[in-house]
Design a protein that fits this description.
about 250 residues, alpha/beta, 6-stranded mixed sheet, globular
């Protein structure tokens, strides 16, 4: 992969700053990466791998890619498995019946909440079983900003998800190293590096309330181009108790 000099400013430095600012990764940590097959988690794997190999944190840590098989018939994980192996890792694929539970057994009209809860629970438990202290998710500043507006518009709360959260049940810490990156940066990176993206067969993909909020944020950013930068400033300067949601399952619902 061809990393250019400007990648330090665009990718390495923001991820490194997020990790150090929030003490996300410590020496000797075994870090599971939740691989969805999408652009965000694939980019996270590549960036953390480069940061680890080049010792940009000043210490070493391990990476364990984990992917959940949701039980959809039309999902082919082969491209992602081959890509992860080409980087020198083994992709841990965990079989689940989440699709059946959500869409057939429960017949959820708004399935995202239950699906997210089930996915996180299985991912965290498997990471713990594999001896991982941390679980890294591929959320970026656009996700955080959208969550902020969702909480405001639908729940009357002025907060977003945490960059780092300790999960007492599984005794692992959830981290979001790409919290300072914008989605458009990730899209450019995936196209430039020709990273594989697995087709998402979920029947409600792109049909959720989050998609509506995404359009709202896009429209706002056209009028206020610095909205993401200002959001990062606000969440860094504000009180953590006032700003961050303390339950990680609320982060990407609906």
């Amino acid at each position: 992969m061809s990393f250019k000099k400007k990648d330090n400013q665009s990718y390495y430095n923001p991820v490194r700053r997020a990790i150090l600012n929030h003490q996300m990764i410590e020496p000797g940590d075994k870090v599971a990466i939740g691989m969805s097959g999408g652009k965000d988690s694939t980019t996270l794997l590549v960036l953390l791998d480069r940061i680890r190999r080049q010792r940009r944190l000043g210490f070493d840590f391990e990476i364990v890619p984990i992917m959940l098989d949701m039980g959809f018939e039309d999902c082919d994980t082969t491209p992602m498995k081959e890509f992860v192996e080409s980087m020198g890792y083994e992709l841990e694929i965990v079989p689940t019946n989440i699709a059946k539970v959500v869409f057939e057994i429960r017949e959820e009209k708004s399935p995202c909440s239950l699906c997210a809860k089930l996915r996180r629970g299985i991912l965290y438990n498997r990471a713990s079983e594999l001896g991982c202290q941390k679980v890294a998710l591929g959320h970026h500043v656009d996700d955080a900003l959208e969550t902020y507006f969702m909480n405001f518009l639908f729940h009357g709360r002025l907060n977003s998800f945490e960059p780092k959260s300790y999960l007492t049940k599984t005794k692992v810490t959830m981290i979001r190293p790409m919290i300072y990156l914008e989605e458009k940066q990730i899209i450019r990176f995936v196209k430039r590096e020709e990273l594989p993206v697995v087709f998402n067969p979920c029947p409600v993909d792109k049909k959720t309330k989050r998609e509506e909020i995404k359009k709202l944020v896009t429209n706002l950013s056209q009028e206020y181009p610095a909205i993401r930068e200002k959001f990062i400033m606000g969440m860094e300067q504000g009180s953590a108790e006032d700003f961050w949601i303390k339950t990680c399952h609320e982060s990407l619902l609906n």
